[in-house]
Amino acid sequence: MGTVINFEERAVASLRARCVAAEEANQDLIAFARGHSGAVASIHQAVLAAVEAEGFDHLIHIVTQDWPQILGLDAVALALCAGDKGMRADASGLQFVDPRVIQKSVARFEGVVLRGVKRGHPMFGPACTLIRAEALIRLDSEAPLPNGLLALGQREAQGFETRHGSELLVFLGRVLTRCMGRWLIP
């Protein structure tokens, strides 16, 4: 006669290991969803602040002064060019820049670039040495409206693993472009 092999212990151990793995994956998914939900809420709050701007100067103030706190960032810079004029704004104020510098910066990508860096994009101005993670958002519009770059930076290095954040940032850039158009076109 043959011997009976007991698979029960192995099967139970395998099921327990799979349950632990599923629970870990579930916790990771919950953590991602909570973080994504927080990002969506922050973007919505930033958009509402921009929509409530009372003029172009106020809009620039909101972007460079209020958005860092709303979005939990260390630096926000806005660079715009129209024709032969270029400007850069950040928390320290407004400066005129060569429009070719801005055009060259935005020609290198479409939409959004999320990346870790050793030094932030030059459009951050003096804060560029502190930036370790940045999101560069291309701002496209039709003439006579300006084109440019919205640069969001933080001191803490960040791993970027998802497209969801870039979709939200594209939305933020499009809203900003439309808000600028509201104040720049008579």
Beta content comes to: 15-25%
As residue ranges, the low-confidence spans are none
**Tell me, what's the shape?**
elongated
Distance between the termini: 96 Å
- The CATH architecture designation is 2-Layer Sandwich
Specify the helix fraction band.
Answer: 40-55%
- CATH topology assignment: Beta-Lactamase
Number of strands: 6
Based on helices, strands and strand pairing, what is the structural class? alpha+beta
Number of domains: 1
Characterize the biggest β-sheet.
6 strands, antiparallel
Q: Would you identify the CATH H-level superfamily?
A: GAF domain
Number of helices: 4
Pfam families: DUF484
InterPro entries: DUF484, GAF-like_dom_sf
Protein name: DUF484 family protein
Written overview of the protein:
With 186 residues, the chain is an alpha+beta fold. It has a single domain (40-184), classed as 2-Layer Sandwich (Beta-Lactamase), CATH 3.30.450.40. 48% of the residues lie in helices and 20% in strands. It has helices at 8-51, 56-71, 99-107, 164-184; strands at residues 75-82, 85-90, 93-96, 112-116, 133-139, 147-154. Helix 1 packs antiparallel against helix 2. It starts with 7 loop residues before the first helix and ends with a helix. The relative contact order is 0.14. The model has no long low-confidence stretch (mean pLDDT 84).
Summarize the structure.
It comes from uncultured Sphingosinicella sp. The protein has 186 residues and is α+β, with helices and mostly antiparallel strands.
